[in-house]
Amino acid sequence: MSAWAAKRFWKTATAGECEGGFTVHLDARPVKTPAKTPLVVPTIGLAQALAVEWDAQSGVINPATMPLTRAANSALDKVAPNFEAVVDELAGYGGSDLLCYRAESPVALVARQAAGWDPLLAWSHSDLGAPLRVTAGVVPVSQPQESLQNLRAHVAGHSAFHLAALHDLVAITGSLVLALAVARKRLSAEQAFALSRIDEDWQVEQWGADDEATATEAKRKDALLIAERFYGLSG
After folding, report:
1. Which helix or strand (DSSP H or E) is residue 21 part of?
2. How does strand 21-26 pair with strand 29-30?
3. Which regions in the chain score pLDDT beneath 70?
4. Dihedrals φ, ψ of 181, to 5°?
5. pLDDT at position 2, please?
6. Residue 220 in 3-state DSSP?
């Protein structure tokens, strides 16, 4: 059975135990991913959340309304088979972390960045063993090799499911430090999003909001909150 059948054919979606973890059954049929991998997840809580998404489908199945299921599919079909490559990709953000690149002016924006980002870099130093250098402007700054190695070790310590969530946390914020802070509950996803948008919020304050940009940012924020939820449900 394909996880993305065109129309609903089942009466009930239920979560339960299976070999290797937990899964969702559509009536008696266990769900599979688009790549035909058995949809086996690490916690009953995640399986129950997936079952809710499946049970909410009516008529033609709409994957866009099933973000947790899509994340689980990604963990199994994309992250697990390419684990080291995904680790490398995410760890690479440590070398160009958003928090390390500051505005040169105006003074008020520089101060806002420092107030929001300096505590997170201090946390990266103390808790992650990864002090990072800060620069003004866009000229790249090299980071200590030991810091980059430690950040990679923190990324590599995740399961495929946690790594799938971390991928979105990193990609949306542009910061590995912010993503790890959410993963470790140093920040909420909402706080991390606000910190990642300091520059953009400053521009809105100066020039006003653009409706299209505002709608795009709302979708990005929703995706970040979903990634935080998926991370928590994954154990």
Report:
1. strand 21-26
2. antiparallel
3. 1-6
4. -65, -40
5. 45
6. helix
